[in-house]
Amino acid sequence: MDDKTLLEIKDLHVWYKVYGGYLKVLHGVNFLVRKGERVGLVGEAGCGKTTTMKSILQILPPGDSRIPKGEIIYKGKDILKMSFGELQRLRSKEVAMIFQDPTAALNPVFTIGAQIGDVVRYSIALEEKRVKKEKIKTLSARALKEVYMPDPERILTNYPFQLSGGMRQRVCIAMSISSPRNLLIADEPGTSLDVTIQDQILRLLKEIVEKQGTSIILITHSLGVAREMTDRIYVMYAGTIVETAPAKDLFKNPVHPYTRGLLASVPKISGGGIARGIPGRIPDYLNPPPGCRFQPRCEYATPSCQEKPPQLFEIDKDHFVACYLAQR
Questions:
Q1: Cβ atoms 22, 217 nearer than 8 A
Q2: What is the pLDDT of residue 251?
Q3: Are strands 215-220 and 38-42 parallel, antiparallel or unpaired?
Q4: Partner of 27 for a Cys bridge, out of 40, 95, 105, 239, CB 3.0 to 4.6 A?
Q5: Phi and psi (nearest 5°) for 37?
Q6: Closest alpha carbon to 46 in 29, 26, 18, 17
Q7: For 150-174, what is the mean pLDDT?
Q8: What's the domain range around 166?
Q9: What's the sign of the alpha-carbon dihedral 54, 57, 61, 64?
């Protein structure tokens, strides 16, 4: 791990306990984020994107989840081996996550001021023994001002139900940046918003990242958003990374059949018929297929694809593909 690397995930496996056994959701995920880098994570719903990010903060469901194998190295230290106190500091001072549903992320019975104040209070308490209420209120209002909320003092007294969806999402972002962070995880921050508000939120995130020099992991279903917002993109399918490359290279030369399928699924504004899509669905995680997890849906699958999962193979500078087709 070099000095430029902020986060590195190595061979991560995550299972969820269910009635019939274990859902083997993540299967050998490898992921890298450099300091100040904007990284995109794209893929179908249910392919393990959010699970990967929740693993970083160790907020997977207790008792129902299991990490049988893997490492999550942050600044040279394995998060999976951190103590409770170290994890609390990581969540309060180092890494923040913006969830895709702001309504679920905010507690309906507490004011916005109380919820942002809790985040600010704990962050300051790690450095100072006594925290004044005036300081907490000032920093909370400043965080709301940073995300262009009108009349921050009034917003602090409001409850979540009194705000629109876009304003609630801005509050969630404000909570994430209320203290300086090295890594910001944005889990589809515009999913529940209309397109105009979604554009404002994404522009806001981009501005914050550029101004503060923060690294960001952006989870999105929109390839267009990933292209505009990120420096490098990871394509995930059924709990595995199938391709990663600089954003411009991925769109210029997609190699993995799944990546090509995602690009072919994007509707064309200029017309040209209905997008083709990808036939089939993601596999059953309780009994995943042997070999490459995409092979049941892949038109190029060969017998070797059913025997052993392909490893990421470098086909160009910083362009890796997990496909036997690329190795021929």
A1: no
A2: 93
A3: parallel
A4: 239
A5: -95, 145
A6: 26
A7: 91
A8: 5-327
A9: positive
Question: Residues with Cβ < 8 Å from 247, sequence gap 6 or more?
Answer: 40, 226, 227, 230, 231, 232, 233
Q: What does the mean pLDDT of the chain come to?
A: 88
Here the CATH number for the domain that contains residue 272 is 3.40.50.300
Quote the number of domains for the chain: 1
Tell me: the pLDDT tens digits for 3-39?
A: 789 999 999 999 999 988 999 999 999 999 999 999 9
Prediction pTM value: 0.90
Contact 277/264 with Cβ under 8 angstroms?
yes
Query: In percent, how much of the chain has pLDDT > 90?
Result: 53
pLDDT at 270 over 90: no
What is the Cα–Cα distance from 77 to 253, expressed in whole angstroms? 35
Structure tokens at 241: 């990374």
Q: 7: which DSSP letter?
A: E
Assigned token pair, 310: 């392909």
Contacts of 260 (CB under 8 A, 6+ apart): 254
Q: What is the DSSP annotation of 131-170?
A: --HHHHHHHHHHHHHHTT-SSHHHHTT--GGGS-HHHHHH
Mean pLDDT of the 165-186 span = 87
65-74, strands of its sheet edge to edge: 21-34, 5-18, 65-74, 77-78
Other Cβ atoms within 10 Å of 237 Cβ, number: 27
Please identify which residue in the block is written with the tokens 């170290």.
86
Token pair recorded at residue 103: 């309504």
On whether the CB atoms of residues 41 and 262 are closer than 8 A, the answer is no
